[in-house]
Design brief:
Elements: H1 7-20, E1 43-46, H2 56-60, E2 66-75, E3 85-96, H3 105-109, E4 115-118, E5 132-133, H4 135-142, H5 159-191
Antiparallel strand pairs: 1-4, 2-3, 3-5
C-alpha cells in the first residue's frame, strides 16, 4: 500500500504546531542572567590578606598556571630586646585562565583560606594573552563569593569546637572553685 501523498508534510506540520504551543526553554542570556546553582565554579577569587606566600597553590597546580612573586621584609622586634623577624610580602599573584582546568586543587591545598570559588563566569577576552588575571582582578572577584551555607542545626559539632568548649568550661570551673576557696578563706579569717 502506497503512502498517501502529503502525509509526511502533515506529520511535520503537526510537530511544528505542537511545539509552537509549548513554553520556550531558551534563556535569553545576555538580557537575563542565569540562576546559577550554589557552589558554581566560575573563577578563582583571592583574599589577599590571608595569603602568606607559602606557594602551595602554585606547587600543587597540575597546569602550572599560578604565578607568584614575593620579597622578604624585616619586621622589627615586638618587645624591646627581642629579635627581628622576616616575613614574605606578596608582589604578584596571577592566574592564567587560558591554562587553568578549574580542578580546584589550589583552593583545597591553601592552608590559610586565601583562594575561593567565585560564581563569576563572564571574563571572556578577545586575546588569549589577556586571560592572565593579576591580583587586583582576583581581589575584585573575591567579593562575588557567596557566604558559606548555614550549618545544619542537627549536625554534630566539629571536634575542634567541642574540645575548645570543654577546655573553656574546665578553666571556668577551676576559676570558680578557686574563687569559692578564696571566699571561704576570707570568711574564716573574718570569723577569727
Amino acid at each position: 500500500m502506497a503512502p498517501i501523498p502529503g502525509s509526511g508534510l502533515a506529520k511535520g506540520l503537526a510537530v511544528t504546531l505542537r511545539t509552537m504551543t509549548r513554553k520556550t526553554v531558551t534563556e535569553q542570556y545576555p538580557d537575563t542572567q542565569p540562576d546559577l546553582p550554589p557552589r558554581t565554579r566560575g573563577v578563582i577569587g583571592l583574599f589577599e590578606e590571608n595569603c602568606t606566600v607559602c606557594m602551595l597553590c602554585a606547587r600543587e597546580c597540575p597546569d602550572w598556571c599560578i604565578y607568584i612573586d614575593s620579597h622578604k621584609e624585616t619586621v622589627p622586634a615586638a618587645a624591646p630586646g627581642g629579635r627581628e623577624r622576616s616575613r614574605n610580602v606578596l608582589d604578584r599573584f596571577a592566574i592564567d585562565f587560558s591554562l587553568c582546568m578549574y580542578c580546584g586543587i589550589c583552593i583545597e591545598v591553601c592552608p590559610f583560606d586565601a583562594l575561593f570559588w567565585s560564581p563569576e563566569f563572564e571574563y571572556a577576552e578577545t586575546d588569549i594573552r589577556d586571560l592572565t588575571h593579576e591580583r587586583d582582578k582576583l581581589r575584585e572577584w573575591m567579593w562575588t563569593v557567596p557566604a558559606p551555607p548555614a550549618l545544619d542545626p542537627g549536625a554534630e559539632e566539629p571536634k575542634e569546637v567541642a574540645a575548645a568548649r570543654k577546655s573553656a568550661e574546665k578553666l571556668a570551673a577551676q576559676q570558680e572553685a578557686e574563687r569559692q576557696q578564696a571566699e571561704r578563706a576570707g570568711t574564716q579569717e573574718g570569723d577569727e
